[in-house]
Amino acid sequence: MKDTFGELWDLLFDPPIAHRGLWSKDGAPENSLGAFQAACQAGYGIELDVQLTADGEAVVFHDSKLERMTGREGRISDYSAADLGQMKLNGSDETIPTLADTLTLIGHRAMVHIEIKTPFGEVGPLERRVHEILIDHNGPTCVIGFNPYSHAWFADHHPKVLRGLDSYNYASGDAKHMAPELRKAFADLEHVSFARPHFLALGLDMLPSAKADEFRAKGMPVVAWTVRKPEEWDAVKAHCDNLIFEGYHA
For 55-77, what is each residue's pLDDT tens digit? Predict the structure, then answer.
């Protein structure tokens, strides 16, 4: 893969990656331009989340609902990008940024892990918009996410985009809607062959993993998430190549 991606491949291993930017309760909110600026200044990589607006724009926001971060009702898909750009994040002066504006701010200063929040089983509009934006961005990027159909879409249509498959143990409440056999298959990384990622981004709840160790031995790097204490990283780093962190400076 080094021959294919060059310096981009090296950035998978170093520096550590700031989860939703370098945010803090007393500073810039998560997934804000201020948090991304802070991550760039500290020399970290950046992980962020993207969703599609009512008018087809990719904006940076994690939750399925707006309430926690903005106090507003509804979802990202209920509003236009312009309307979302007026909503304050956690009472700060920061607002919900577009992916295009975010990448313009970051430029070449950081590797950006773009988590595509397409619901499981769906694919298309958000992936296409993200790729349109990436065409105009020369800085280092990769796409990540939990939806294997999203990864397969990129593998089929834009194979030169670096891709990382997110996974975890699928035992928590937000996975209860999935059939038990599907949850087990995902936890066992059986969907890797369908998704065809270049690397894995695995939750701490499934690390260390013998199956992940097998993929890693065959040349597929493993990035751990979300590490919130140095001792959490110490417990898994022998099985991983990098970490996505928050709450401290890795």
Answer: 999 999 999 999 999 999 999 99
